[in-house]
Amino acid sequence: MAVQHSGEVDLAAPLVAKVPLGSYPRIGYSPYSPTLSPPGDRRRFVSYARKRNLPFEIADPKEKYDLVVLSELSDISVWPDYPHGKMVYDLIDSYLSVPRTRLKQLLRGPAWYLAGRNRRFQVDFLSGIRNLCRRSDAVVCSAPEQRTAIEGYCRNVHVILDFQGMVVGHAKSDYAAHSPFRLGWEGLPSNLSQLVRIAPVLRAMAQRDLDLHVVTDAFQVRLAGILGKADSRKLLSAHFPSGYVFHDWDEATCSDIITSCDLAVIPIDLGDPLVRGKSVNKLLLLWRMGMPVIAAATPAYCEAMAGVGTPELACANDAEWIAAIERMMADEQMRCEAAIRGRRYAETVYGPDAILARWDAMFASIGFDFGRQSDGPSEQKAAS
Length: 384
What we know:
Elements: E1 2-4, E2 27-30, H1 39-42, H2 45-51, E3 55-58, E4 67-70, E5 86-90, H3 103-114, H4 125-135, E6 138-141, H5 144-150, E7 157-159, H6 165-168, E8 181-186, H7 192-195, H8 199-204, E9 210-216, E10 219-221, E11 229-231, H9 232-239, E12 245-248, H10 254-259, E13 263-266, H11 273-276, H12 281-288, E14 293-296, H13 299-308, E15 314-315, H14 318-330, H15 332-349, H16 352-364
């Protein structure tokens, strides 16, 4: 099926022969889903291709391409042996930072095979990720800490965040608090295990008039689907017995729900290397919505909070979380200023033009001059 769609920059990297303006290489893209609907597709390479009017097709390892772009869910048992063209691997999670001996890391190889993600059985998931990095001409990641780990296997690594304009929608402008005060969380159901990290904080603040609003999917896939689905509301009820307000995630309503809250939260298990190494994407998304945010003190969040002048809103323990929430509940002006600073930071330091330029620079580093193509989404339709 052919689909017509429309980092950190290493200035010392040599440029090889460029694609002539007006012509296109054959590009194969290995997506999260053939529908191209998951965020990992729409907010990353697919969005870039549309902005640059690049035609691409769903990648087949048996076909010959000039350029292959691999999403994080690509087959790590097949693509490392691909003999043709240039390869870009979009590795947005910190798998390389997770010890091989961790239970989930041990299970990922068999789980990906049983779920049909890998064609060949590969018990060692970590070796598959490393081999794909070695084969790639460029690796894209989403945080500087990831780049350090990846550079041991590929020297051409670029930090590039998400395009988020399609999700932002409504931006908050009224910072008067509701009663009860509303805390908001948004994310994939697979990340609910991170949200429950705030449960002890909310129990300690049980006497305060607080509501937790959760925006996610009703069900979550477990272990790449081989263990079926889990009910998100059952998990939430187990950890938040005093109650919460559940909202089904929908792109059309997400920003309206989140911006109806008074404060957004991003709790993270700081002892888990996979999630501790996550990018600043979620924080930037909430800031773009005009939200004041309190986040866990991951390296990426600490750097961003320091950049906007609110380092105290990156919390390393329950006591810091309680103090930060108490301060934000009590001070409307602080909430407003934190939101305005955050939105300005997101739109300037990580605005769409800056992200587009990083994709351009990454492709230029392996010889493709897509940056000179006309902007704007392609009007061409999908073709079989």
